[in-house]
Design brief:
The complex is a heterodimer of chains A (159) and B (129). Chain A is built from 4 helices and 8 strands; from the N terminus they run ββααββββββαα. In chain A, strands 1-2-8-7-6-5-4-3 form an 8-stranded antiparallel beta sheet, with helices on one face. In chain A, a hairpin with a 4-residue loop joins strand 7 and strand 8. Chain A is globular and about 40 Å long. Chain A starts with 6 loop residues before the first strand and ends with a helix. Chain B has a two-stranded antiparallel sheet. Chain B starts with 23 loop residues before the first helix and ends with a helix. The chains are: A alpha+beta (159), B mainly alpha (129). Chains A and B meet through strand 2, helix 1, helix 3 and helix 4 of A and helix 1 and helix 5 of B.
Chain lengths: 159, 129
């Protein structure tokens, strides 16, 4: 079981979110998990949601669109364009939640080789501070519930 | 004693329900700004273990007590800490209620990312990716 943890930095009064995470695998493999739609479908999105990949063409100029369906049948669609894809180093893509059309952010992901391990640094730039806060807040309700579920599991396992 | 906290002079956060009325979003922004500095984050982490004086807080750092005082002013202005008016010691106190909306905001975002990445970990471990 991996002990790597995710750090998130969202500096005040900026439209940025920075996320850093290490993985115990070489950049080539991690990069493939980000660009091969079959693999993407296996990890992207909240737990207990079904992901449907509409299109996923991870090449410069290619498009992606996927839909998350929650347990009550509510659907949340996301789409964007790959601006740059350089295996196994960089992905730069746009990101838009279709529920907030026009609020497009730009995500730059760097894959750093740590010698058999990989550090991913993602820098997201939103159109405004308000847009950043709104989009993050919209994902919070589900996140909070899942955190509680996970806490429960953890306590059950340790008890 | 609550009445001895500087917060009563108008610097307590609106989120904590005392002191001057402030726009919660404005307060959140101030708090984020205060948290943007690593020294201030360390100070808060220390205060999470219990109240401390300026000198005690300055101990682990190479910077001067004056510099730490400046940091404390920023934290106080953001409503993240309160200080006793006891002139000699003025121990600092972590204003826990003011921290929770902040912690929720980033922590929930982080949890969602963590969850995705743990599934990716599992894929990589199983050799599927």
């Amino acid at each position: 079981m991996s002990t790597n943890t995710t750090t998130v930095d969202a500096p005040a009064n900026t439209p940025f979110i920075d996320t850093v995470r290490d993985f115990d695998a070489a950049p080539e493999r991690v990069f493939r998990a980000f660009t091969d739609p079959e693999l993407v479908a296996k990890w992207l999105g909240p737990r207990n949601y079904v992901i449907t990949i509409d299109t996923f063409d991870a090449r410069p100029g290619g498009r992606y669109r996927y839909i998350h369906t929650d347990t009550e049948g509510n659907q949340f669609a996301f789409r964007g364009v790959f601006h740059d894809v350089q295996a196994p180093l960089t992905i730069i893509q746009t990101f838009e939640f279709e529920g907030y059309p026009g609020q497009v952010s730009i995500e730059s992901m760097n894959f750093e080789d740590l010698g058999g391990r990989t550090r991913i640094s993602q820098h997201s730039v939103f159109p405004s501070v308000e847009s950043r806060d709104m989009i993050v807040a919209s994902g919070m309700e589900g996140g909070l519930k899942e955190s509680m579920d996970r806490l429960e599991e953890l306590l059950a396992a340790e008890g | 004693v609550a009445s001895e906290h500087v917060g009563q002079l108008g610097q307590a956060p609106a989120l904590a329900g005392s002191g001057e009325e402030q726009d919660p979003e404005d307060q959140l922004n101030k708090a984020f700004m205060a948290l943007a500095d690593p020294v201030r984050r360390k100070i808060l982490a220390r205060l999470a273990q219990g109240d401390a004086t300026v000198n005690q807080l300055a101990e682990p750092f190479t910077v001067t007590v004056q510099a730490i005082s400046k940091h404390l002013q920023v934290l106080e202005g953001a409503g993240l800490i309160t200080r006793s008016r006891d002139a000699q010691r003025r121990p600092c106190h972590l204003n826990t209620p003011a921290l929770s909306p902040l912690a929720d905001w980033i922590e929930n975002y982080r949890q969602l990312a963590e969850e995705r990445f743990q599934r990716l970990d599992a894929l990589l471990e199983k050799g599927e990716a």
